[in-house]
Amino acid sequence: MRRGSAALVAGLLLTALPAHAVEVAVSAAPIASFEGSALDQPVGKLIFRGGIALVAQDDTFGGLSGLTVTGPNQQVLFVSDRGNFVSGHLAYDENNRLFGFIGVTIEPMQNSKGAPLPRQYAKDAESVDTVYRNGVPVAARVAFENLTRVADFALTDGIPGGPAREITIPQWLSDLRSNDALESVCVAPPSSPIAGSTLLITEGMLDEDGNHPGWLLGQSDKGPIAYAKSARVDPTECAFLPNGDLLVLERGVSMLSFVMHLRRVPAAEVRPGAVMRGELLLSVTGGAIDNMESMTVHTAPDGETRILIGSDNNFNDWQRSLLLEFALPD
Question: Structural domains in the chain?
Fold first, then answer.
């Protein structure tokens, strides 16, 4: 463990837990190769930087469907499809390799009245991004399917909690009451032409032109948007790069194996009325991946921009909770 990570663990032990949060010990096994590529070698149009497989004895850990950075020192937040926030810190060694997920706490989400979410139909959180105000993270914005909605949860020291504050979305979107509905939420960065706007993308729904309908929530950038349908896969997560380009993670199943695609959409194409079509950066099928659903873009300890992609094990023993890390070539 690098010296900084040891100090971080000590600091986490002194931090008071939220009222309903529980601590969970999570072990991590390193992933040193991917699709035949060793560490720091090209895979598709990316560079593989390593990864970890996460395991916990606590049966509340799992179902990790969305991922975002919420604070310094690699502080991150997952949402699970059983209505929990899973908070912690990514740990890196002296070679800037991801080797652990530490200081992990799990806390149930609340409804707008501050009560626990009543049933599974209301708990199915699928995506999360961080809302910033004047450069400070102030809320976690969560997208739910089945009982389709978007809600903000206040961040305190990077940890979400308290009552949900529901965000107004179009009626056609809230009327979609299935697990094929709202799957992705991401907030555009300052460099984007639609800075501060929130992008919503549906998963299994198709419009009359055969594309995935979406919506932009913003002041001046508000209205319909669509994402082009790809064969075998559907969009399952989105994340913006620092320059405003959009990454879209796609997921599917082929011949009893999971499929993962990653596409990059130029910033100028993310606008109301557009049909977004991205450049394919990565296409993978088979045992190197699992049910890849979560993604965030963050800055590693060495200052490199990295793409972190995670899998949802659906609380099944035969699936894995993977975190795979990539960089874009210079």
Answer: 3-109+119-327 (2.120.10)
Residue with tokens 């405003």: 244
* Exposed / middle / buried, residue 168 (Cβ in 10 Å: 0-12, 13-18, 19+): exposed
Contact (CB, 8 A) for 87 and 160 = yes
Query: CA distances (Å), 128 to each of 47, 140, 153, in order?
Result: 25, 6, 10
The CA distance from 172 to 149, in Å, is 11
At 302 the three-state DSSP class reads coil
Q: Whole-prediction pTM value?
A: 0.94
SS3 label, residue 207: coil
Note down pLDDT in tens along the chain; length 330 residues.
454 554 555 454 445 566 678 999 999 999 999 999 999 999 999 999 999 999 999 999 999 999 999 999 999 999 999 999 999 999 999 999 999 999 999 999 999 999 999 999 999 999 999 999 999 999 999 999 999 999 999 999 999 999 999 999 999 999 999 988 999 999 999 999 999 999 999 999 999 999 999 999 998 899 999 999 999 999 999 999 999 999 999 999 988 899 999 999 999 999 999 999 999 999 999 999 999 999 999 999 999 999 999 999 999 999 999 999 999 998
Helix (H) or strand (E) holding 64: strand 64-71
CA 44, 94, 52, 7 torsion-angle sign: negative
